[in-house]
Each structure stands twice: as C-alpha cells, then as structure tokens.
C-alpha cells in the first residue's frame, strides 16, 4: 500500500535527513587512500549514537552493519571490511538514519584520491541521472517518468542503468511501496501524489547493467567487472515540487 505522510511525519523525516547530511559531510573528509570502510562504519555507528539516532539498516533482514560500502565493481550492499581503500578507487557509502522514528536514506559515491577520467565521467553522469529523476517528482507525474528520464540520459552518455535494484517508498520502515525503477517508459505506473516520500537512487554502470550476487547473499556486483556508481536522495512530493530531505547543498 502506498502511504502519504503527514506534516509531522515529514518534519521528523527532515530532521533525520539533516543529521544524515551532516554525517555524510564528515565521511567526505575521511575518504582517502589507506582508510578502511570498517573504520567508516565504526565512525557512523558512533556519530549517530552521539546524536540520538540509530543506523536503521543494521539488523534489517539480518544485515550486520551500519552502512553499505560498495567499492569499484560492487553495485550495492557491499559489506564494510578491513581492506584499505586504494588511490583510484571509488566507494559508495549508503545508509539509513532513524532519528526519533523519522527515516532518511542517502547514498553517495566518493572518489578515493586521484581517479581516472572515465571514473570521473561515471560519477558525473550518475549524479546528473539522480537530478534528472528528481525533476520528474511532481504531483500528477507517473513513476515511469522518473525511470525514463534517468535511463534516457545515462544511456545517452554511454553508460547503463542497473535494473535489479530500485528506489522505494520510505517511512515508517526502510522499504515501502511503491518501487521506483530507474528505467522504463513515460506515462506508466502509479501517479505521484502530494505527501508521498520516496527514494531515487540510480545505480549506473560503466559496462553492462547485469549484476551477480556474492556468496554473502547481500553484495551485488557487475558481471563484467565494470565500475558502478550511485547517488541517492530521499524525496518528498509536495505541491511546490520535490523536497529533498537529504539535500547536501542547502
């Protein structure tokens, strides 16, 4: 069932989003060659606790960590680990913050040290793909409009859009209806209505869009070892257009 949030619920989700943004900005300062994603996970757990919040995905369906940390060809749900990040890597940090029952979900792909030109292009296209999808978040638009805008742009730039994982409604739990594919046809799917809160989180690959699953049954990676990038915002549908609870540019 697709739910619409009250003003009070949205205010709580905005507070969670504000905290998530602050946490991501601290993570951005930490990303450099030699750091481990396990160190970032420990930082996030401590940071959220100090601010009265919890990492919502820890324990969700048995997931064991405060963050997902996906490196290079890992598409999503990468486990934090003790391997040091290397110069030239890219790493996506994805997390869900619960602050007093309000949820916010955001992923960001970070360059580690000096990355090559194709990686820079991948990150740029992935970020613009997210923006293209957000532009469609108007009352009366359809879910297919979001995916079509993303797919048309990303494929036009020579990249592919992952199809096995989608955005979703959020609140009161992590994954609510509706599913938000990042590909598809315009004028298809459910209509967006004021008060809906969704995530848009395109995963964009260098090569083919197909994925395979690691033995941990969580981590998805590209089948051709091409790199993958992802940016994600939590978006409220309002009569005045999309409101980003996880906007880093406010």
TrEMBL record:
Protein residues bound to a divalent metal cation 2:
105, 168, 201, 232
- EC main group: hydrolase
Which GO MF terms does the UniProt record name? Answer: aminopeptidase activity
Instruction: State the reactions this protein catalyses.
Output: Release of N-terminal amino acids, preferentially methionine, from peptides and arylamides
User: Might you give the EC number(s) for this enzyme?
Assistant: 3.4.11.18
Q: Which cofactor does it need?
A: Co(2+); Zn(2+); Mn(2+); Fe(2+)
Sorted alphabetically, the keyword list is: Aminopeptidase, Hydrolase, Metal-binding, Protease
Residues where substrate binds:
77, 175
CDD domains found in the cross-reference section = MetAP1
The residues listed in the UniProt record as binding a divalent metal cation 1, with positions renumbered to this chain, are 94, 105, 232
Q: Where is the Peptidase M24 domain?
A: 11-239
Database matches in InterPro entries: Creatinase/aminopeptidase-like, Pept_M24, Pept_M24_MAP, Pept_M24A_MAP1
Explain how, and how many, cofactor molecules are bound: Binds 2 divalent metal cations per subunit. Has a high-affinity and a low affinity metal-binding site. The true nature of the physiological cofactor is under debate. The enzyme is active with cobalt, zinc, manganese or divalent iron ions. Most likely, methionine aminopeptidases function as mononuclear Fe(2+)-metalloproteases under physiological conditions, and the catalytically relevant metal-binding site has been assigned to the histidine-containing high-affinity site.
| Superkingdom, taxonomy of origin | Bacteria
Q: How does it assemble?
A: Monomer.
Q: What does this protein do?
A: Removes the N-terminal methionine from nascent proteins. The N-terminal methionine is often cleaved when the second residue in the primary sequence is small and uncharged (Met-Ala-, Cys, Gly, Pro, Ser, Thr, or Val). Requires deformylation of the N(alpha)-formylated initiator methionine before it can be hydrolyzed.
Family named by the database record: Belongs to the peptidase M24A family. Methionine aminopeptidase type 1 subfamily.
**Which NCBIfam families did the record assign?**
met_pdase_I
- Which PANTHER family does UniProt cross-reference here? METHIONINE AMINOPEPTIDASE (PTHR43330)
The protein here is known as Methionine aminopeptidase
The opening ranks of the lineage are: Bacteria, Bacillati, Bacillota, Bacilli, Bacillales
Q: Which gene encodes it?
A: map
């Amino acid at each position: 069932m697709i739910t619409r949030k009250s003003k009070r619920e949205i205010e709580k989700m905005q507070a969670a989003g504000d905290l998530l943004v602050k946490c991501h900005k601290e993570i951005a300062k930490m990303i450099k060659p030699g750091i481990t994603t396990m160190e970032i996970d420990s930082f996030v757990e401590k940071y959220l606790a100090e601010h009265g919040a919890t990492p919502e995905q820890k324990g969700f369906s048995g997931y064991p960590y405060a963050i997902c940390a996906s490196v290079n060809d890992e598409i999503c749900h990468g486990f934090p680990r003790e391997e040091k990040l290397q110069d030239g890597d890219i790493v996506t940090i994805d997390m869900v913050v619960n602050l007093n029952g309000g949820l916010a979900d955001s992923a960001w792909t970070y360059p580690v040290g000096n990355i090559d030109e194709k990686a820079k292009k991948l990150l740029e296209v992935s970020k613009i793909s997210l923006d293209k999808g957000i532009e469609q978040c108007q009352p009366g638009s359809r879910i297919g409009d979001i995916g079509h805008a993303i797919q048309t742009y990303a494929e036009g730039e020579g990249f592919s859009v992952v199809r096995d994982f989608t955005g979703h409604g959020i609140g009161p739990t992590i994954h609510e209806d509706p599913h938000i594919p990042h590909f598809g046809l315009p004028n298809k799917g459910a209509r967006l209505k004021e008060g809906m809160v969704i995530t848009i989180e395109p995963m964009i690959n260098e090569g083919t869009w197909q994925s395979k699953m690691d033995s941990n049954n969580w981590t998805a990676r590209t089948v051709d070892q091409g790199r993958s990038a992802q940016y994600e915002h939590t978006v409220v549908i309002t009569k005045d257009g999309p409101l980003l609870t996880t906007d880093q540019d406010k």
